[in-house]
Backbone:
């Protein structure tokens, strides 16, 4: 039997009971597969790798070694959350690598979107590889592969898999959620006790804020983007849009316009709001954000974020605009 095909008889996991049953089965399978050996996992903090981490911690505890690479392009508070939830609450064997300088130095003056993606993806593998080489006696590599990854592994989305790991790593794979759809992964994550903000978080591209800090990334503009994005998320949380909108974020282009602040000329970048709904990310429609919410967000971003002097709204559906700007 091909282990990569979901059997027709497999029930969709929609309840805590079904999730608990799945978890118990996977724990037994993983223990049988791994024995007393060690397993390595690249833990990005995204839904899939987080659920795999929580599941494996339950199954094999400290035999799991999680590596979290902070490429400096995470959203505000994300790496901190990984450390808090996995390092502290779940007491995982977690190696945290702050590789911000490595990534940002390499990305300096690189404006071409595809080149940026390639640098980020390539460097990620390098950092992870270096870390893996330092560890001894690791025989298995765990991955947060989910069923759509298997169904879509036709090359169309190859560029999406920034966390894709080197093929020459000679480790056997452990992929406990590979037959699950995204909604099932979330149900399993909740049953494992992961916080909602981790399990129900919106999709976030592997290259992170790197594809939203448009053109050549600078540290000051990246900082402004991260702060503005945090304000957008906070306001969407407060007004209930967070649970309703599929994906929402800020992009900051690399040009300035003239503004005025405290009676003085104030040149700054625009922050562009994008909020879209979709089911499969192949097409997307625009969420109609109430004007009072937009005014509030604009007031906060222009007052609180150094370097931003305008807030714009992207009204373009996909097609013709892609969801991300790069
Ligand atoms: P686009 O911009 O192609 O995005 O309309 C469709 C969906 O894919 C996400 N996306 C990525 N996800 N690595 C990822 O893991 C990537 O390089 C990447 N690029 C885009 C995007 O956020 C949207 O949800």
Residues:
């Amino acid at each position: 039997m091909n282990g990569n095909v979901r059997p027709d008889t497999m029930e969709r996991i929609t309840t805590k009971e079904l999730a608990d049953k799945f978890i118990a089965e996977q724990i037994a399978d993983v223990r049988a597969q791994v024995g007393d050996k060690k397993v390595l996992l690249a833990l990005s903090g995204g839904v899939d790798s987080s659920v795999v981490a929580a599941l494996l911690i339950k199954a094999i505890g400290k035999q799991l070694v999680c590596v979290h690479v902070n490429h400096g392009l995470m959203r505000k508070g994300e790496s901190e959350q990984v450390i808090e939830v996995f390092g502290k609450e779940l007491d995982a064997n977690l190696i945290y690598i702050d590789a911000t300088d490595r990534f940002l130095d390499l990305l300096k003056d690189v404006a071409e979107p595809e080149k940026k993606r390639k640098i980020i993806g390539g460097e990620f593998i390098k950092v992870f590889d270096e870390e893996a080489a330092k560890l001894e006696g690791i025989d298995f590599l765990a991955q947060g592969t989910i069923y759509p990854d298997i169904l879509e592994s036709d090359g169309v989305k190859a560029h999406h898999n920034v966390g894709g790991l080197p093929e020459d790593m000679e480790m056997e794979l452990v992929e406990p959620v590979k037959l699950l759809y995204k909604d099932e992964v979330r149900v399993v994550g909740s049953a494992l006790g992961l916080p909602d903000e981790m399990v129900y978080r919106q999709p976030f591209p592997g290259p992170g804020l790197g594809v939203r800090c448009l053109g050549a990334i600078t540290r000051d503009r990246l900082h402004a983007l991260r702060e503005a994005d945090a304000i957008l998320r906070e306001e969407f949380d407060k007004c209930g849009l967070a649970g309703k909108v599929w994906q929402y974020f800020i992009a900051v282009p690399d040009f300035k316009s003239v503004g005025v602040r405290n009676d003085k000329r104030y040149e700054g970048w625009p922050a562009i709001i994008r909020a879209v709904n979709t089911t499969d990310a192949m097409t997307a429609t625009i969420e109609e954000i109430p004007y009072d919410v937009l005014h509030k967000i604009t007031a906060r971003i222009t007052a609180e974020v150094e370097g931003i002097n305008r807030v714009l709204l992207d009204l373009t559906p996909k097609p013709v605009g892609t969801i991300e700007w790069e």
